[in-house]
Amino acid sequence: MCNTVETSHAFCKGFFEPSVAAGFRPSLLLLTRDTRTTALSHRRKNAVPRRTDAGFAHLIAPSDDVYLPVADPASLSDYQLCYWYCLEIQLRQTLYTRIAEKLDMKVVRMETSELSDMDRLVEVVTPLGLADATSARAALARAGVEKAHNATPKAKQTAPDFDLETEGAALLARLGPPATVADVQVRIDRARSFL
Known about the structure:
The protein is mostly helical. 45% of the residues lie in helices and 5% in strands. It is built from eight helices and two strands. The chain has a two-stranded parallel sheet with strand order 1-2. Helix 2 packs across helix 4 (78-102), helix 4 (78-102) packs across helix 7 (164-172) and helix 5 crosses helix 6. The protein starts with 15 loop residues before the first helix and ends with a helix.
Protein backbone atom coordinates (compact mmCIF):
# COMPACT_ATOMS: atom_id res chain seq x y z
CA MET A 1 0.00 0.00 0.00
CA CYS A 2 1.29 3.42 -0.91
CA ASN A 3 0.30 6.68 0.74
CA THR A 4 0.65 10.05 -0.91
CA VAL A 5 0.79 13.05 1.37
CA GLU A 6 0.15 16.54 0.00
CA THR A 7 1.30 19.14 2.50
CA SER A 8 0.72 22.33 0.55
CA HIS A 9 -1.59 25.00 1.86
CA ALA A 10 -2.71 25.41 -1.76
CA PHE A 11 -5.02 22.39 -1.43
CA CYS A 12 -7.64 24.48 0.36
CA LYS A 13 -7.39 27.23 -2.25
CA GLY A 14 -9.04 25.49 -5.15
CA PHE A 15 -8.21 21.78 -5.05
CA PHE A 16 -10.57 20.47 -2.36
CA GLU A 17 -13.78 20.86 -4.35
CA PRO A 18 -12.51 19.31 -7.63
CA SER A 19 -10.83 16.48 -5.72
CA VAL A 20 -14.09 15.57 -4.00
CA ALA A 21 -15.97 16.00 -7.28
CA ALA A 22 -13.58 13.54 -8.95
CA GLY A 23 -14.26 10.95 -6.26
CA PHE A 24 -11.12 11.32 -4.18
CA ARG A 25 -11.62 10.93 -0.44
CA PRO A 26 -8.38 12.11 1.12
CA SER A 27 -7.81 12.27 4.84
CA LEU A 28 -7.39 15.85 5.99
CA LEU A 29 -4.88 17.20 8.49
CA LEU A 30 -5.94 20.71 9.42
CA LEU A 31 -3.22 22.87 10.94
CA THR A 32 -4.57 25.57 13.21
CA ARG A 33 -3.05 28.63 14.84
CA ASP A 34 -4.44 31.73 16.50
CA THR A 35 -5.81 33.98 13.73
CA ARG A 36 -4.33 37.22 15.05
CA THR A 37 -0.92 35.67 15.58
CA THR A 38 -1.01 34.26 12.06
CA ALA A 39 -2.18 37.55 10.56
CA LEU A 40 0.66 39.40 12.29
CA SER A 41 3.11 36.78 11.03
CA HIS A 42 1.93 37.26 7.44
CA ARG A 43 2.26 41.02 7.81
CA ARG A 44 5.77 40.71 9.30
CA LYS A 45 6.78 38.43 6.41
CA ASN A 46 5.34 40.92 3.93
CA ALA A 47 2.80 38.36 2.68
CA VAL A 48 -0.29 40.52 2.15
CA PRO A 49 -3.05 39.29 -0.19
CA ARG A 50 -2.88 41.10 -3.56
CA ARG A 51 -0.43 43.70 -2.24
CA THR A 52 2.96 42.03 -2.03
CA ASP A 53 4.84 39.51 -4.14
CA ALA A 54 4.39 36.80 -1.49
CA GLY A 55 0.72 37.70 -1.18
CA PHE A 56 0.17 37.39 -4.94
CA ALA A 57 2.11 34.14 -5.10
CA HIS A 58 0.67 32.27 -2.13
CA LEU A 59 -2.48 33.83 -0.70
CA ILE A 60 -6.05 34.21 -1.86
CA ALA A 61 -7.67 37.63 -1.68
CA PRO A 62 -11.20 38.98 -1.31
CA SER A 63 -11.34 39.48 -5.08
CA ASP A 64 -10.99 35.71 -5.60
CA ASP A 65 -13.86 33.21 -5.40
CA VAL A 66 -13.99 33.25 -1.59
CA TYR A 67 -16.32 32.01 1.11
CA LEU A 68 -16.06 35.07 3.36
CA PRO A 69 -16.90 38.29 1.53
CA VAL A 70 -15.73 41.65 2.82
CA ALA A 71 -16.91 45.12 1.85
CA ASP A 72 -14.46 47.45 0.09
CA PRO A 73 -11.33 45.30 0.44
CA ALA A 74 -9.16 47.91 -1.28
CA SER A 75 -9.51 50.16 1.76
CA LEU A 76 -8.41 47.50 4.26
CA SER A 77 -5.08 47.94 6.01
CA ASP A 78 -2.37 45.34 5.37
CA TYR A 79 -3.07 43.78 8.76
CA GLN A 80 -6.82 43.66 8.08
CA LEU A 81 -6.22 41.90 4.77
CA CYS A 82 -3.99 39.36 6.50
CA TYR A 83 -6.55 38.92 9.27
CA TRP A 84 -9.32 38.47 6.69
CA TYR A 85 -7.18 35.84 4.94
CA CYS A 86 -6.81 33.90 8.20
CA LEU A 87 -10.56 34.07 8.84
CA GLU A 88 -11.22 32.85 5.28
CA ILE A 89 -8.91 29.86 5.77
CA GLN A 90 -10.49 29.13 9.16
CA LEU A 91 -13.95 29.15 7.53
CA ARG A 92 -12.73 26.84 4.77
CA GLN A 93 -11.43 24.41 7.37
CA THR A 94 -14.84 24.40 9.07
CA LEU A 95 -16.79 23.95 5.83
CA TYR A 96 -14.45 21.31 4.43
CA THR A 97 -14.59 19.40 7.72
CA ARG A 98 -18.38 19.24 7.46
CA ILE A 99 -18.21 17.98 3.86
CA ALA A 100 -15.48 15.48 4.78
CA GLU A 101 -17.49 14.11 7.68
CA LYS A 102 -20.52 13.59 5.41
CA LEU A 103 -18.25 11.61 3.07
CA ASP A 104 -16.64 9.56 5.88
CA MET A 105 -13.25 11.14 5.26
CA LYS A 106 -10.83 11.25 8.19
CA VAL A 107 -10.19 14.70 9.61
CA VAL A 108 -7.54 15.49 12.21
CA ARG A 109 -6.79 18.91 13.67
CA MET A 110 -3.42 19.92 14.97
CA GLU A 111 -1.94 23.16 16.29
CA THR A 112 1.12 24.35 14.37
CA SER A 113 2.96 24.54 17.70
CA GLU A 114 2.60 20.73 17.90
CA LEU A 115 4.62 20.14 14.73
CA SER A 116 7.74 19.54 16.80
CA ASP A 117 5.97 17.35 19.37
CA MET A 118 6.93 13.76 18.57
CA ASP A 119 4.12 12.21 20.62
CA ARG A 120 1.46 14.42 19.04
CA LEU A 121 2.73 13.69 15.53
CA VAL A 122 2.59 9.96 16.19
CA GLU A 123 -0.99 10.42 17.49
CA VAL A 124 -1.85 12.12 14.20
CA VAL A 125 -0.16 9.92 11.60
CA THR A 126 -1.32 6.62 13.10
CA PRO A 127 -5.12 7.12 12.70
CA LEU A 128 -4.53 8.64 9.27
CA GLY A 129 -3.03 5.31 8.27
CA LEU A 130 0.33 6.80 7.31
CA ALA A 131 2.33 4.48 9.57
CA ASP A 132 2.09 2.40 12.71
CA ALA A 133 3.28 4.15 15.89
CA THR A 134 6.71 2.48 15.98
CA SER A 135 7.51 3.19 12.33
CA ALA A 136 6.19 6.74 12.62
CA ARG A 137 8.29 7.47 15.68
CA ALA A 138 11.45 6.14 14.00
CA ALA A 139 10.85 8.04 10.76
CA LEU A 140 10.01 11.28 12.56
CA ALA A 141 13.13 10.97 14.73
CA ARG A 142 15.29 10.46 11.60
CA ALA A 143 13.70 13.57 10.09
CA GLY A 144 14.52 15.59 13.20
CA VAL A 145 10.98 16.81 13.79
CA GLU A 146 11.74 17.98 17.32
CA LYS A 147 13.68 20.84 15.73
CA ALA A 148 11.35 21.46 12.76
CA HIS A 149 8.83 24.03 14.02
CA ASN A 150 9.54 27.38 12.37
CA ALA A 151 7.61 29.87 14.49
CA THR A 152 9.03 33.36 14.56
CA PRO A 153 11.42 33.50 17.51
CA LYS A 154 10.24 35.79 20.32
CA ALA A 155 13.37 37.92 19.84
CA LYS A 156 12.33 38.76 16.26
CA GLN A 157 8.71 39.57 17.11
CA THR A 158 7.91 43.26 17.35
CA ALA A 159 4.81 44.87 18.74
CA PRO A 160 2.48 46.18 16.04
CA ASP A 161 2.21 49.95 15.57
CA PHE A 162 -1.61 49.79 15.69
CA ASP A 163 -4.28 48.49 18.03
CA LEU A 164 -5.17 44.88 17.21
CA GLU A 165 -8.62 45.15 18.81
CA THR A 166 -9.57 48.24 16.82
CA GLU A 167 -8.26 46.90 13.51
CA GLY A 168 -9.91 43.53 14.09
CA ALA A 169 -13.27 45.01 15.07
CA ALA A 170 -13.24 47.29 12.01
CA LEU A 171 -12.67 44.28 9.77
CA LEU A 172 -15.34 42.14 11.45
CA ALA A 173 -17.88 44.93 10.94
CA ARG A 174 -17.27 44.76 7.18
CA LEU A 175 -17.61 41.01 6.72
CA GLY A 176 -20.52 39.71 4.72
CA PRO A 177 -22.40 36.53 5.54
CA PRO A 178 -20.12 33.48 5.45
CA ALA A 179 -20.73 30.70 2.98
CA THR A 180 -22.40 27.49 4.05
CA VAL A 181 -21.85 23.81 3.35
CA ALA A 182 -24.46 24.15 0.61
CA ASP A 183 -22.27 26.77 -1.09
CA VAL A 184 -19.32 24.38 -1.03
CA GLN A 185 -21.53 21.66 -2.49
CA VAL A 186 -22.45 23.99 -5.36
CA ARG A 187 -18.75 24.34 -6.18
CA ILE A 188 -18.24 20.59 -5.95
CA ASP A 189 -21.17 20.04 -8.33
CA ARG A 190 -19.81 22.70 -10.68
CA ALA A 191 -16.42 20.96 -10.69
CA ARG A 192 -18.13 17.61 -11.35
CA SER A 193 -19.71 19.05 -14.48
CA PHE A 194 -16.23 19.45 -16.01
CA LEU A 195 -15.28 15.79 -15.51
